[in-house]
Design a protein that fits this description.
Number of strands: 9
CATH architecture of the largest domain: 3-Layer(aba) Sandwich
Order of helices and strands: HEHHEHEHEEEHEHEEH
Strand content: 15-25%
Helix content: 40-55%
Distance between the termini: 48 Å
Strand order of the largest sheet: 5-6-4-3-7-8-9
Number of domains: 2
Shape: elongated
CATH class of the largest domain: Alpha Beta
Amino acid sequence: MKKVITDKVINRLTLYHSILTDYIEKNIEYISSPQIADLLHIDNTQVRKDIALLKYKGKCKVGYKAYDLKSLIEETLKFKTIKNAYIVGAGNLAMALAKYDNFEAYGFHISALFDNSYLKIGTIINGKKVYDIDKLPEMAERQEVKIVILTVPRQFAQEVTDFLVKSGIKYIWNFTPCVLNVPNYVQVWNENLIGNFLQFTVNHDNKKF
């Protein structure tokens, strides 16, 4: 039976991937688990456990071959499998996400944006067109898109989510400060920007020096 990789491990593996990319660009052939752990300020044992899940062993006293480990992470997390997605809500955050080209390196392709403002419909952001939200159901079915990044204002989040569910969307990456009510067959991943910021500021203010 295939072992399920948890969300926390997936998150750490993507960080390892970034470090490995940097090492490869600097022509550094090997990297050790203590080096990764030091860069991320985590325990070395955790790094070794995560890499052990990939069934990859490094060389004693040398470490892991950076290119091989990077490729294995890409294979495990399916970076080469293109996953098309839409952004719904073409505001400032949406424009920033649409301009973030590194998504492509992880197999995540934003193919279009949607909004209901006539001032935004028809505009082009980083080569991606903003469409009328009413066109989403037909386009999603034709292009077989099941993933949406939601960046609408909070007061419209649930209404738009209901529309997306009826349109066949199965995965919602929620950037709104709203807890969404969805059927069991729809998965929501909440990107809590304010919560993450407060964790940093509160911990920083309480830190003893």
